[in-house]
Each structure stands twice: as structure tokens, then as C-alpha cells.
Amino acid sequence: MHALVSIYRSVFNMVERAGDWLLPLFARFTFAATLLLYFWNSGLTKLGDGVFGLFSPSIGAYSQIFPKQFEAVGYDASQLGFFHWVVVMAGTYAEFLLPLLIVIGLATRLAALGMIGFVIVQSLTDVYGHGATDEKTLGAWFDRFPDSVIMDQRLFWIFLLTYIVVKGAGVLSVDTLLRRRAQPALA
């Protein structure tokens, strides 16, 4: 029996050591494979036309981020203020920049923390701004149905991002490369 326990411990100690470098990489891969294009495509819908679209959000950007305020001004973006423009542009740039930082592993923990905040704001906007309160979209935890968009899917997103915040980017990342280059300078 002691031999069996010893084998069990040694095998799972190796698994745990391998997991320390493998799981952060796998978490970033999972993010890239499932959410990177989702956020980038969403960001693309918020950009205006042409080169100057980088600084001039589309009508869709305002309707996605400020649905009730945009409706209140008759869907005329010129009636919204500088604050609205700044929020729309920051949200749009965040949909491009934060996922990219996570995928390449640069400032990964901060980027993942920013994405958690983004997902929370996105979810609150969906519920309170767009009225996504139907059972299928909003869902509920502990209800035996694991397929709601907001409560179920986004909980998985936040768990994945929280894992990255806690564990970092892993061995194959720009963060690790920069840390290794900085170590001789510190010594």
C-alpha cells in the first residue's frame, strides 16, 4: 500500500510541476482560440469608416455601449458629449489591445484584470442597457442549464481570466522574456 501511495505522490508531483508552466500557456491558448476573435470582431463593429474611423466611432458603437442614452437623443451621435466619445473609444480600443496583450503574454496579469472589468461592464450593459433579462440569455446559476450567455458563459470567461491574473502568462510569453532579460541587470 505504501508503494502505491508513493507512486501516486511522485506521479502527481510531476503533474503539478508540469502544470505550473503548462496551465498558464494553455489558459492563454484557450483565450486566443475562443475569445480573441470574438472581441476583435466586436471592436471592428465599433470603428467608423475609413482611416479616420479609428477616431470616429460608428453609430453601432454608441448603440452597443450607451443604448438608452443614444435612443434618448434620437440616435444622433452629435447629441452625445465628450464623455460618451471617450468611453466608446476606450471600450473599442480595449477590445483590441487587452486580448492582444493576453495572447502575446505582455502585461498579462493587468490585461486579464482589465478584461475581467470589461466583461463585467459588458454584462451589466447587456442586462440594464439592452434589457437582456430573458431566461435563455441571462440564465441563472445552479439551474441545471449550462448554456446561458451571460451568467454561464461569462462565468467561464471570468474564471479563465482570473486564472491568468493569479498565475501569470507562463513560460512562453513576452513577460517571461522581459523578466529574464532584466534579471542580469538587477544582479
Provide an overview of this structure.
- The protein has 187 residues and is mostly helical.
- The chain has one domain.
- It has helices spanning 2-44, 59-65, 67-72, 82-104, 108-129, 135-138, 149-167, 174-186.
- α1 (2-44) crosses α7 and α5 runs antiparallel to α7.
Sequence-ordered SSE layout with sheet pairings:
Blueprint: H1 2-44, H2 59-65, H3 67-72, H4 82-104, H5 108-129, H6 135-138, H7 149-167, H8 174-186
- Domain module tally: 1
Largest sheet at a glance? none
- What percent of the residues sit in helical stretches (DSSP H or I)? over 70%
DSSP helical segment count: 8
Radius of gyration: 21 Å
Overall 3D form: flat
pLDDT under 50 segments (min length 5)? none
Number of strands: 0
Supply the helix-strand structural class: mainly alpha
Question: What percentage of the residues does DSSP assign to strands (E)?
Answer: under 5%
SSE order, as H and E?
Answer: HHHHHHHH
Provide a quick synopsis of the model.
Helices cover 73% and strands 0% of the residues.
Feature tags:
187 residues, mainly alpha, 73% helix
